[in-house]
Amino acid sequence: MERTFVMVKPDGVQRGLVGEIVARLERRGLRLVAAKFMTVGKALAEEHYGEHKGKPFYAGLVDYIMSGPVLAMVWEGPNAIAAIRQTMGATRPTEAAPGTVRHDFGLEIGRNLTHASDKLETAEREVALWFKPEEQVTWTRDVDRWVFEKA
Ligand code: DAT
Ligand code: MG
Fold it and tell me: N or C: which end of the chain has fewer CB within 10 A?
């Protein structure tokens, strides 16, 4: 079972797509572990996107995630990292597969609606950056055995 960090970015919130995006992850069978609706301060924004520091789009990216409230979440499931990246689609919406969030709702790379951790090491770092251990809920669902081979 993997845990991964997911965020509906300010454009997704402003456009009323929180429910749509959460619904897609729920329908996929993933299990919600933590969520908070919040505005992002500069220190957190810079730390979150630290791997992109020095790139030409870094300042714009930091401003973008500070530009309005976001929904920060942790989701879990078998292969949750790859599954959620797939549901979100490629970084550039015009390269995202039809049926993905970024394809279905996006046009521009700087307004690509969501963030999702890209690998195990990043997921561990990002989950810990955004959520304290006590904010993460460990629980089971009656349906788990119909979704997870090993519940
Ligand atoms: P992802 O969000 O798919 O993990 P990433 O980690 O490579 O993509 O980049 C983080 C964000 O930075 C991405 O969602 C949008 C922005 N970004 C990435 N590459 C960019 C580029 N070449 N020009 C403008 N913005 C870019
Ligand atoms: Mg990334």
Answer: N
